[in-house]
Design brief:
78% of the residues lie in helices and 1% in strands. The protein contains 20 helices and two strands. It has a two-stranded antiparallel ribbon with strand order 1-2. α12 packs across α13. The longest helix has 30 residues. It is globular. The protein starts with a helix and ends with a helix.
Length: 460
């Protein structure tokens, strides 16, 4: 019966084609041009043309980025580094620094300038989800239980590298600040770039080194948590200052609006949402309705801070930190969102950052000396400042050094801040590249330094 229907369909099409098309059968219409059947494109030519279309090209980019990120992440773990180091390096390898240098034609085919807009938007979605997850992981109990020591260590680990960054800006401003950017904006951003600690990467290193339940691990986690909040508040002020064209009044209004929004999230939204997220007996804690509420809050909060003028990632972090849920719900939500975000969206962010990183811009000895100086300043300020602060609170020198090395981890959080500064036009492409490389080096240093101290003190 099916065969009969197929034969009937073919017969109707054949009769209709002869009756209706007339003499037009000798030509095939392709787009707005007609070509003779003998001149029709060959299958592989059509495939090549189809891959060049926006959607297929994006799918090729996604598959390639995921594959390379997984390979580099596995290689990093083999070398004793967290996988995020390999994923960061994968982004640089796919950019003009490696792929573009080895095969410019392949690079231009895979990542033409016209495709970067969509890739950039997808990567921003990944960052928003990641910052929401970071907010979920933030636990004020870490800070409350060690309040005095945590405040001392976190504050010194911010202000000392910040001061060194501002001092470095004095020497770098003339040659490396984009036109139209004031020294205040450039200096503030350089201070921020030196001050950030990657709280999620630090937590992963502590877990891999089995330091989470040790005094130094708990202290590092607490200090990094409070330090991250301080650093993001400072970055929010810098963003407000730059977007307000240097107007202190406008920046103050932006910050005031942000504080009011944070109060709204904590005092109004949090109590309203609490009963909606509470799972009673026999109810699915992660039902589609609850997941829709959670994701909606995350992106609505991100939208609010983007409209206010301090970037969507601040709203995403605030939504995660203010979410009224117990630890079990937060942990389950983290697992569900983190798997999708870390496998698909964050590698796209690394790739997008890598496409902006042009190591070829460091084309003379002076540029490499500046890179070495930036790494030295960043390490001295963060590692040295944190270690000295820890020693002043009564910790022994080996533990203080381990804590300083952990606080020197920058990782993904630094890349997020650098992309914010780059989008605002506060830093030049060359300085962006220098700071990206600094983030890679200082993060890669953490594991070996901690392992060295552990082996010498017999804690390994």
């Amino acid at each position: 019966m099916i065969a009969l229907f197929i034969v009937a369909i073919a017969g109707v099409l054949n009769v209709g084609d002869r009756a209706m098309s007339g003499g037009r059968n000798d030509r095939l219409v392709t787009g707005t041009q007609s070509v003779a059947p003998a001149d029709a494109p060959r299958p592989w030519d059509r495939w090549r043309a189809n891959i060049a279309l926006p959607l297929p090209r994006l799918l090729v980019q996604i598959v390639l980025v995921i594959l390379v990120a997984r390979l580099f992440g596995a290689a990093a773990r083999k070398l004793g580094q967290p996988s995020v180091i390999g994923e960061m390096a994968a982004g640089v390898a796919l950019g003009p620094s490696l792929l573009g240098a080895l095969s410019p034609h392949t690079y231009q085919s895979l990542f033409p300038a016209s495709s970067l807009g969509v890739l950039g938007l997808l990567s921003q979605i990944g960052v928003i989800l990641f910052m929401f997850i970071v907010g979920l992981d933030f636990n004020w109990a870490h800070v409350r239980h060690r309040a005095r020591s945590v405040v001392v260590i976190s504050n010194i680990s911010i202000v000392l590298p910040f001061l060194l960054g501002v001092c470095a800006a004095l020497a770098l401003y003339t040659e490396h600040a984009p036109s139209g950017i004031s020294f205040r904006a450039f200096g503030l951003f350089m201070g921020i770039a030196m001050s950030i600690t990657a709280f999620p990467v630090l937590a992963r290193i502590l877990d891999e080194r089995r330091l989470l339940d040790t005094p130094v691990g708990a202290m590092a986690l607490s200090a990094a948590a409070l330090g991250d909040v301080t650093a993001w508040i400072l970055l929010a002020f810098v963003v407000a200052f730059v977007t307000a064209a240097g107007s202190i009044t406008t920046a103050a209004v932006t910050i005031g609006t942000t504080v009011a929004f944070a109060a709204l999230m904590i005092l109004v939204v949090r109590p309203l949402v609490r009963p909606l997220l509470s799972a009673g007996a026999g109810r699915d804690a992660f039902s589609k309705e609850r997941m829709a509420i959670v994701i909606g809050i995350a992106f609505a909060s991100a939208l609010a801070t983007e409209v206010i003028g301090i970037h969507a990632l601040f709203g995403a972090f605030l939504a995660g930190a203010a979410l009224p849920a117990d630890d079990a719900f937060r942990s389950g939500l983290h697992d569900r969102l983190e798997s999708f975000s870390s496998v698909l969206l964050l590698p796209l962010f690394f790739a997008f950052t890598g496409l902006r990183t042009q190591i070829g811009l460091l084309d003379d000895g002076r540029s490499w000396l500046i890179l070495a100086g930036i790494i030295a300043i960043a390490t001295a300020g963060k590692l040295g400042g944190s270690a000295i602060a820890a020693r002043s609170t009564g910790m022994d020198w080996p533990s203080s050094f381990v804590l300083g090395a952990l606080m020197n981890t920058r990782g993904l959080m630094e890349l997020i801040a650098l992309n914010v500064g780059y989008d605002l036009g506060v830093i030049s492409p060359q300085m962006f590249t220098i700071l990206v490389l600094m983030a890679l080096v200082t993060t890669a240093m953490t594991g070996p330094l901690v392992g060295l101290v552990q082996s010498r003190s017999g804690q390994a």
